[in-house]
């Protein structure tokens, strides 16, 4: 649905995006992560056919972002970094205006506006001026604007910024349901927990370059090594490590617990449990030590360039 | 034809969606509505009453003429006041939207840059113009009911056209200003470039109104239309997604300007058009400049060179035809009395240089440089002034010489050609590159910003002027002092 090949954007001598290559399939969410100025917004602008790449190419919904820019824009819903609403208007005329620009009929405009406003909990405030909305409400209205013409591709820049937890969940659920409707979605975010929760794959960009691309699990394995397992026992673990050495290497231990890395947990863990039982140890729990995307992200962005 | 009309309507229809929204938005803003209502309804009534009072008072003192001149003047003022808001609305709708980040969602719509531009220009022009027409209507009705006077239809048409063209100039100018800034504050500062010329224009119109030379108003309408075409061309070129989103801060960096200028000056003309691709080290390469760069620049500027050459010929012809209207006495052209010793002892008029090579060179350079400077502030138009005035005089003199009984071709061959074969090409080059310098802001080349385009044109101008035009002018000045008088005396003089 989205294909970017060596996509590059230079502003004067400054390279904002440097040879980005990735694909996003229908029914997939790709999260673009990166520090401020990494080139996420510029990438989104190029995919939305707002900016032309300096070199490289991209197709969105099968259309070339340079040669078929208007068709691309017809097939893409864009949530810009700032909501950018017309504050003197109310929600319905606002959506009606954008619906006209998308070329929707009057009936489509009315139906889509009502259903989306209801879905995002803004129907009751439809007669209120947008200027009187809270930040979160404005953000929701901007998302509705992006979804109004039912596009197969969504490019969302910080979709849950400024939202309370309830609204953020509402938006996340909406994004997931859009994915389930086989849409290709790109989400730019600083919210790592959200990226982990939403994204099928994550691309980490730094100084315009793609540093890492993969599923959250793949990224963690690649950067943080094999999963770290923790075993909790009843009683002391003193002297246990040498007796397990042929199965696992104990990395750390304490009062009633020890940790090891399992490259292949499916094979290692049952053998380990059998050995511990044979040694008369009573296992309380065996679990993977949670490793967050934040660890991966910080590792990547803190590396010297 | 029907297909074309359908496509055209579809194009305009989308633009009008933007116009309608923005017009409604403007009408919701009391800061725009209240002054416009006052200027549309209250001020024209006041103007009618003023006209009546002035007429009555002046008639008492036997000067009704002044009163009748006040009426058209007030007609113009009544029309102009509401359109002054078009500038404010235009700055709001272009740079204001950008500042409030509401422009980017529009840029993501399936609209062309042209549709966005047209929609916004119409939005910024519509409300003030309607208010202006309404104000004129109220004023004319007021005149009819107070002093039973109806302005001539032709004057009404002139004021209607002037008002429309002025509103459009302000809006089109505001688009250009907006494209160079990211905040309303900065745009307001730059808006002086629109306000000051408009204020001068209105003052000029006022003088014309009191002078009652209404025919001159047609010329002003024509000039405004040309200005509109230029500004709209610039606006269409500058109001595009790349330009709007590529500029994030309004910062004047002399260092960047200097570096950029050096790139344009020292790189080959092809590389200069794509400065973002970089290139080798920057160095002065005279051999390359003369061998490759100058010929390439001449080819690239062939249109400007052609225009300048054509204008030179036209000026010559115009001067020739005007000679009969202002014929000089034949004794002015009695070449038989020219001294054998040359022209050095001849008395020269004050505005001409002394007959020395450096005086002539300085005189030529000063007038050409003034033309180039004026070109920068007139989109290149004024670059023609030195060339056209000089060639007009040459054409004028050639005809006068013919009227005095000499062969004008011999006159040109003897008085002009000995040094003109170098001087005229140098002047054409100077003028053509000055024209390009002024016109560079109208349509920057693809991928270059407005300032880049100006710097590139300046670099090309300097290269051609320093390496070609000035050496030619130096040589021509020496020929003009040491060769031309000698030939003149040999051919005509010695009496």
Q: Overview of this structure, please?
A:
The complex is a heterodimer of chains A (305) and B (495). In chain A, 37% of the residues lie in helices and 28% in strands. With 305 residues, chain A is of the alpha/beta class. Chain A has two domains: 2-221, P-loop containing nucleotide triphosphate hydrolases (Rossmann fold), CATH 3.40.50; 228-288, Alpha-Beta Plaits. A six-stranded mixed sheet of chain A has the order 6-7-8-3-9-10, sandwiched between helices. In chain A, strands 2-1-4-5 form a four-stranded antiparallel sheet. In chain A, strand 12 (250-254) and strand 13 (257-261) form a beta hairpin. The model of chain A has no long low-confidence stretch (mean pLDDT 88). Chain B is mostly helical. Chain B folds into two domains: 2-246, no CATH class; 259-491, no CATH class. The longest helix of chain B has 36 residues, at 64-99. Chain B starts with a helix and ends with a helix. Chain A binds chain B through residues 10-13, 45, 48, 50-52, 54, 70-71, 73-74, 76, 78, 80-86, 88-89, 97-98, 100-103, 142, 145, and chain B through 14, 17-18, 21, 25, 28-29, 100-112, 241-242, 245-246, 275-276, 278.
SSE layout:
The complex is a heterodimer of chains A (305) and B (495).
Chain A: E1 2-11, E2 14-24, E3 28-33, H1 40-47, E4 55-60, E5 63-64, H2 69-74, E6 76-79, H3 91-102, H4 106-119, H5 135-147, E7 153-157, H6 165-180, E8 184-188, H7 192-198, E9 201-206, E10 209-214, H8 216-224, E11 228-234, H9 241-244, E12 250-254, E13 257-261, H10 265-278, E14 282-288, H11 293-302
Parallel strand pairs in A: 3-8, 3-9, 6-7, 7-8
Antiparallel strand pairs in A: 1-2, 1-4, 4-5, 9-10, 11-13, 11-14, 12-13
Helix pairs in contact in A: 3-4, 8-11
Chain B: H1 2-27, H2 30-60, H3 64-99, H4 103-107, H5 113-147, H6 153-179, H7 184-190, H8 192-211, H9 214-238, H10 241-246, H11 254-266, H12 269-272, H13 286-300, H14 302-322, H15 357-376, H16 384-403, H17 408-439, H18 450-482, H19 484-491
Helix pairs in contact in B: 1-5, 2-3, 2-5, 3-5, 3-6, 3-8, 5-6, 6-8, 6-9, 8-9, 11-18, 13-18, 14-16, 14-17, 15-16, 15-17, 15-18, 16-17, 17-18, 17-19
């Amino acid at each position: 649905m989205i294909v970017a090949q060596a996509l590059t954007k230079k502003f004067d001598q400054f390279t904002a995006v440097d040879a980005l290559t990735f694909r996003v399939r229908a029914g997939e969410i790709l999260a673009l992560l990166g520090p401020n100025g990494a080139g996420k917004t510029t990438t989104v602008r190029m995919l939305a056919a707002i900016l032309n790449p300096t070199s490289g190419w991209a197709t969105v919904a099968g259309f070339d972002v340079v040669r078929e820019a208007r068709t691309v824009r017809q097939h893409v819903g864009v949530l810009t970094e700032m909501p950018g609403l017309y504050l003197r208007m109310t929600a319905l005329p606002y959506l009606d205006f954008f619906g006209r620009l998308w070329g929707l009929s009057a009936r489509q405009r009315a139906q889509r506006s009502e259903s989306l406003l209801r879905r995002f909990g803004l129907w009751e405030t439809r007669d209120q001026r947008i200027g009187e909305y809270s930040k979160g409400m404005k953000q929701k209205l901007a998302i509705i604007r992006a979804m109004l013409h039912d596009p197969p591709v969504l490019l969302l820049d910080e979709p849950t910024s400024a939202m309370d937890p309830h609204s953020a969940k509402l938006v996340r659920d909406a994004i997931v349901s859009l994915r389930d409707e086989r849409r290709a979605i790109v989400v730019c975010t600083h919210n790592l927990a959200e990226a982990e929760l939403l994204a099928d794959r994550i691309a980490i960009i730094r100084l315009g370059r793609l540093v890492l691309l993969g599923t959250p699990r793949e990224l963690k394995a690649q950067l943080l090594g094999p999963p770290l397992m923790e075993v909790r026992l009843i009683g002391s673990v003193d002297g246990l490590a040498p007796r397990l050495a042929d199965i696992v290497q104990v990395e750390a231990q304490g009062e009633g617990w020890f940790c090891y890395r399992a490259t292949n947990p499916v094979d290692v863990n049952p053998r380990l449990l059998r050995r511990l039982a044979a040694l008369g140890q009573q296992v309380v729990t065996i679990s993977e030590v949670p490793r967050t995307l934040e660890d991966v992200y910080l590792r990547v962005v803190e590396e010297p360039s | 034809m029907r297909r074309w009309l359908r496509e055209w309507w579809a194009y305009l229809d989308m633009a009008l969606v933007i116009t309608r929204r923005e017009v409604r938005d403007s009408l919701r803003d009391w800061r725009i509505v209240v002054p416009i209502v006052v200027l549309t309804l209250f001020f024209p009534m006041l103007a009618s009453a003023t006209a009546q009072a002035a007429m009555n008072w002046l008639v008492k003192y036997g000067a009704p003429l002044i009163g009748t001149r006040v009426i058209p003047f007030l007609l113009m003022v009544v029309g102009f006041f509401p359109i002054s808001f078009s500038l404010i609305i235009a700055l709001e709708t272009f740079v204001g939207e950008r500042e409030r980040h509401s422009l980017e969602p529009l840029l993501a719509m399936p609209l062309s840059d042209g549709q966005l531009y047209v929609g916004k220009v119409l939005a910024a022009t519509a409300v003030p113009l309607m208010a202006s027409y309404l104000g004129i209507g109220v004023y004319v009705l007021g005149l009819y009911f107070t002093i039973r006077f109806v302005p001539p239809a032709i004057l009404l048409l002139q004021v209607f056209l002037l008002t429309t063209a002025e509103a459009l100039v302000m809006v089109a100018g505001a688009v250009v200003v907006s494209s160079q800034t990211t905040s309303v504050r900065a745009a307001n500062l730059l808006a002086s470039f629109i306000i000051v010329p408009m204020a001068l224009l209105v003052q000029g119109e006022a003088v014309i109104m009191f002078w009652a030379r209404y025919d001159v108003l047609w010329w002003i309408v024509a000039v405004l239309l040309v200005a509109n075409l230029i500004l709209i061309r610039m606006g269409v070129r500058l109001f595009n997604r790349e330009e709007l989103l590529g500029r994030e801060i309004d910062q004047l960096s002399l260092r960047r300007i200097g570096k950029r200028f050096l790139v344009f000056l020292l790189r080959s003309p092809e590389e200069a058009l794509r400065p973002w691709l970089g290139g080798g080290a920057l160095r002065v390469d005279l051999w390359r400049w003369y061998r490759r760069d100058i010929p390439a620049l001449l080819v690239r500027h062939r249109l400007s060179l052609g225009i300048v050459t054509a204008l030179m010929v036209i000026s010559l012809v115009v001067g020739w035809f005007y000679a009969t209207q202002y014929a000089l006495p034949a004794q002015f052209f009695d070449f038989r009395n020219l001294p054998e010793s040359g022209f050095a002892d001849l008395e020269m008029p004050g505005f001409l240089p002394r007959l020395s090579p450096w005086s002539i060179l300085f005189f030529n350079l000063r007038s050409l440089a003034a033309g180039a400077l004026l070109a920068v502030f007139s989109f290149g138009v004024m670059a023609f002034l030195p060339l056209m005035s000089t060639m007009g005089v040459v054409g004028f003199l050639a005809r006068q010489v013919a009227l005095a009984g000499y062969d004008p071709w011999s006159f040109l061959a003897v008085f002009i050609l000995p040094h003109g074969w170098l001087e005229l090409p140098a002047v054409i080059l100077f003028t053509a590159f000055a024209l390009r310098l002024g016109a560079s802001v109208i349509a920057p080349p693809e991928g270059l910003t407005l300032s880049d385009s100006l710097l590139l044109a300046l670099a090309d101008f300097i290269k051609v002027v320093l390496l070609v035009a000035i050496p030619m002018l130096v040589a021509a000045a020496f020929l003009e002092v040491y060769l031309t008088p000698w030939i003149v005396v040999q051919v005509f003089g010695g009496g």
